[in-house]
Amino acid sequence: MAIISSKQPAADAEQPAKQRKNATPKPTATPTQQAAADTEILQADITNPEEKIQEESLRPSSLKEYIGQKDLKGVLDIAIQAAKVRQESLDHLLLYGPPGLGKTTMSLILASEMGVNCKITAAPALERPRDIVGILMALQPGDILFIDEIHRLPRMTEEILYPAMEDFRLDITVGKGNTAKIRSIPLPKFTLVGATTKVGSLTSPLRDRFGLVQKLRFYEVDELTLIVQRTADILQTVVTEEGAAEIARRSRGTPRIANRLLKRVRDYAQVKAHTEIDGAIASAAMEIYNVDPLGLDWVDRLLLTTMAEQFNGGPVGLEALAASTGEDSHTIEEVYEPYLLQIGYLHRTPRGRVVTAAARKHLGLKGGNDNSEQLSLLED
Ligand SMILES: Nc1ncnc2c1ncn2[C@@H]1O[C@H](COP(=O)(O)OP(=O)(O)OP(=O)(O)O)[C@@H](O)[C@H]1O
User: Fold this and answer.
1) What fold, for 221-289?
2) Which portions of the sequence form the region Head domain (RuvB-H) (predicted)?
3) How far is the CA of 99 from the centre of ligand 1 (A)?
4) Running DSSP on this structure, what letter comes out for residue 277?
5) ipTM more than 0.90?
């Protein structure tokens, strides 16, 4: 299987059939992407190229090796077997869930299981129609095209995808004004795998063109423990079960974070001349990196404390919270909030975010507006 990573615009092409004025805005760089090293550990976005290369080496390469996500694996196993029997390409697949849960990894596994190439790109690299046209025209029969952050696709790019996904056809406009004609170019059958952290932001015409829509869930501690042990083996690091479990508990249900924490703990163990990582070493290391026993870092604590103290527990709107903490609203919504919601430290209501009594207790905060339970009944 060849993995082709495409972040650059592709070959020139003619204009797409339909055009709309409003393209989706480009995502802005988040303040946390430039922040301190201890925050970096919990960031799901990878900005460091070296770390990116190392991440590639940690990816499981088959469904069997892919730990957890039992339901997802069951569905995809059937889809793979059926497609192989019929000698067809896989149906288009939409994977959604918070960052770092294994969407890209799963796409690469699908390609490997099907014996085809996987071409990887992301919506921000598909700004101009010719970017996607060039990629589509270079596809081979059966190829998997992985588009990350698919909810950020510009409308024009999205409209090129509609006939490509449905009829394996590229519609391009030749000429201008009254003499303009639409020319259709056949495409090989391919599989589009879209990944998103915000499935609700996809337009329905795009969402409806995916035959399979699957959610990735946060991982359980025992699954993350296995992931830490597997990564430790690859990195030739000795970790006890207790040590792996300690790292797993602080990994916010996310394999990418588990792998990063393991690397930081390995640094600590090396500097302190420990030959193996046990529970005590793992927890001592994570104190230094400011990761608490539940995996919360200082940004989580800042968000919760700000809500509790400045907004009397909420409800508080996302933009107001972003302005008060200096954090980017996308980062709060897509990186931090999902886990805080998952562990019941935050509720989302139609009137805004509310901090819960459990979060107050964890942070040792008193008083405030304790209406989170009633407001949670209104959760959106
Ligand atoms: N089920 C799993 N078993 C073992 N390792 C995993 C699993 N899922 C993810 N990983 C590890 O976590 C890392 C992050 O996974 P991946 O890049 O696939 O996440 P993602 O959901 O695509 O994230 P993003 O949306 O930020 O691109 C990978 O390097 C891989 O090693």
Assistant:
1) Helicase, Ruva Protein; domain 3 (1.10.8)
2) 293-380
3) 8
4) B
5) yes
